[in-house]
Amino acid sequence: FANQIKTDELSFTRGKTNKDKANRATVENVLDPRTMRFLQALTSRGVISDFNGCISTGKEANVYHAFAGYKQNQKKDKTGEEESPAPDSVENNAEEEEAPEERDEYAIKIYKTSILVFKDRERYVDGEFRFRKSRSQHNPRKMIKIWAEKEYRNLRRIYQSGVIPVPKPIEIKNNVLVMEFLNRGNGFASPRLRDYPYKDREEISYFYYNMIADIRLLYQICRLVHADLSEYNTIVHNGELYFIDVSQSVQPEHPMSLDFLRMDIKNVNLYFAKMGIDIFPERLIFQFTIS
Ligand code: ATP
Ligand code: MN
Predict the structure, then answer these.
(1) Is the CB of 192 under 6 A from ligand 1?
(2) Where in the sequence numbering do the catalytic residues fall?
(3) What is the pTM of this model?
């Protein structure tokens, strides 16, 4: 199965990489035998096929590209569309989904099972009644599973709300999360806000207002605070802002939710101020939490 990972195909990679080094590190830290078995299971169940190159290597997870497996394609053949799409959020993909021969593309986020990086996670999971404290918090593997599940459930909650664009969640299998791949064609990922080439000043303002509106909708409709929001965890896709990386997102009931929210607003304001936009004062934006 390891042979299927074509590290030569680096078209999905953001920048230049040292292939050998990346490959070795990847296999050692992320694609351990257990993870390979989960990928194998997803493949034989027809969820994914053609596990391709790496989109991103991060501290906590690597993101890979894959195509939808036969199960997903069968479903589309039969019904002409995907199962129970949320009414609003699939609108943008309408054209793509009408082309019958086009296979869906997936982003596969694989959480690293190494102990080193996950210490900090506890403060996001503690205080969440959705993930009640258990013995699993002392077992790194189980902890990573909980963490990946948390991202999947947050993603699903936001997706189903239909008010904020996020990649469609497809499957979760232990530390392997399968979601819609946000692409701009030819296998390239849509850019993060950080890398987006703005057309003009108006477009910067447009994204700023959208970002502020989305923070509010996320809180008031989805009942979540992103808690790691920035120009790095936002993708511009089909002219819209998509939130990604929601593993650490918490409910308003979390004892630190308002601190996380203030941090999100601060990050966003800092970025857009740097882009030369007149920003709203932090405390003014923050007011929606008490209204
Ligand atoms: P990092 O430590 O680099 O922040 P991470 O573990 O936080 O990584 P994410 O932020 O979820 O992981 O994803 C890392 C990168 O992978 C994103 O910045 C984005 O470029 C790409 N990416 C993630 N999900 C998708 C997706 N659904 N479609 C396209 N690209 C994606
Ligand atoms: Mn990230």
Answers:
(1) yes
(2) 228, 245
(3) 0.82
